[in-house]
Amino acid sequence: MRPLGERIDSANRILGEALSWLTGFMVLVTFVVVVLRYAFDTGWIWLQESVTWMHALVFMLAAAYTLGCDEHVRVDIFYRRMDARKKALVNLLGALFLLAPTWLLLIFVSWDYVAASWAVYESSREAGGLPGLFLLKSVIPLTAVLILLQGLSQALSGFLAARSRSQQATPGEDPADRGTGL
Questions:
Q1: CA angle 158-162-166, nearest 5°?
Q2: Distance in angstroms (rounded) separating the CA atoms of residues 148 and 83
Q3: pTM of the model
Q4: Fewer Cβ in 10 A, N or C end of the chain?
Q5: CA 47 to CA 98: how far, in whole Å?
């Protein structure tokens, strides 16, 4: 089970690090758009839309990477005070009962939306805009799949951590007390 989680983590890390370069490129393209508009009184719709597309790709595709780095916003009033075993259990239950249903619902809800876009090979509504909007919309269910995979990795890690802690406990010892000095 551990190698599967490591492969998922590695794939999302590679994707996240690659996307980090896209943010720099997005800044550069935005700069070009502004210079063209205000210095030369010209511009191209496709160039402006490319910034929006890059922004969407960074946020959607890097979400699983962010989850893998444990950098998503969390209300951690209780979580930060928990020991490693309890954190692992919270991560396991959160992945199974909160993360998975939410992202499975997103796949279900977005499927027809994306399929309708593919059916007409949807492109920008703006004259001179980017073609292939259906490709960008396809990233919605892809994002959900990536996050589900990262959630699976998180659940596996939580399960293995909780299991290994309980197996290490001596008879009569509460595994939750390990490492607390009690």
A1: 170
A2: 25
A3: 0.80
A4: C
A5: 38
Cα–Cα dist 182/142, whole Å? 46
Element of type H or E holding 152: helix 139-168
Runs of H (alpha helix) within 41-83: 45-61, 63-68
3-state helix, strand, coil in the chain (%, to 5): 75, 0, 25
The angle formed by the CA atoms of residues 176, 177 and 182, to the nearest 5 degrees, is 165
Q: Please compute, for residue 172, the number of CA atoms within 13 A of its CA located in the half-sphere on the CB side.
A: 0
- Whole-number pLDDT of residue 82: 85
Where does residue 168 rank: exposed (0-12), middle (13-18), buried (19+ CB within 10 A)? exposed
CA-wise closest residue to 94 among 145, 158, 4, 5: 158
Eight-state DSSP code of residue 125: S
Amino acid in the structure at residue 82: M
> What confidence tens digit (pLDDT) does each residue in 134-146 have?
999 999 999 999 9
